[in-house]
Structures
1.
Amino acid sequence: RVMPNIVSAEHLGLAQSFKQLLARYRENKDLIAIGAYTKGSDPLTDVAVDLIPKLRAYIAQGITQGSVFTACKKELETLLQATQVADTAPVGTAKAAAAAATPATSNPTQAPRRASKVKRGLA
């Protein structure tokens, strides 16, 4: 909730795009797992499927592993910079951030975010 007040609009857009891709993958995880998802059905899901190993690697952090905020932001930029979805703005842009900021559903009872996400610049 505080992130828009403490990071740049660009960083906010990157974080929201990252979360959007991760959420899209999770929404379709079962279909993907059983081979029922057809590539090309949804451009954003296609991108999420292609990037899921990198998305997971980005948020993985050992219990004793530290993170430098600026390095994490740069890593996030690199991860998302070339990501484009048909008929939408590139993931990580202000337009994509605006789209990501209006989720289809919201869960007000969602558990608090873990501290490691704050360190990674995603909270």
2.
Amino acid sequence: MLKTSRYLPKAPTEFAQRSRWLAAVKWYEMGEVSRGLAAMIAGMGRSRSKLPAESQFIASLCQFQVSPFQYAPGELAEELSSIR
């Protein structure tokens, strides 16, 4: 008999949803998708949460220690120098 991890959902629909969410987090971390698109991929906004989808996604990033601020090296310094 195949054992399942306590971290993996047991129902196929839960597994599919969790897979979309994990993929969205990773693609966002890699800079492949925007926060808004990642939130859509993850299925955020379809719940009863009062937060907008993108805000829900940002809040969920901390579970994987992924920063909501995705800057390439030097981009942050450039961004900050433009506001001075």
3.
Amino acid sequence: MVCERNESSHGEKKRTKWINRDREAANEHLLRDYFVFDTLYDLSKFEERRISRNLFLRIARDLECNYEFFQLNWDARSKRDFTTI
């Protein structure tokens, strides 16, 4: 998301430019490709990134359980925030 906040010489704030990145669709795409039961890519493709899928998911789960930053939240627009994965 790109935000631009500029103030003119008179102290007026200009409208923030917001770009829709469709992060919900991107999250669904990521899950569908790598993490659901019938994935698009097999384990060998995931492990080309030098970590096993099970280890990655265990780390993600531990982060989500132990740190509030990684827990699911809702943003100011009442949209679901980023997931841990």
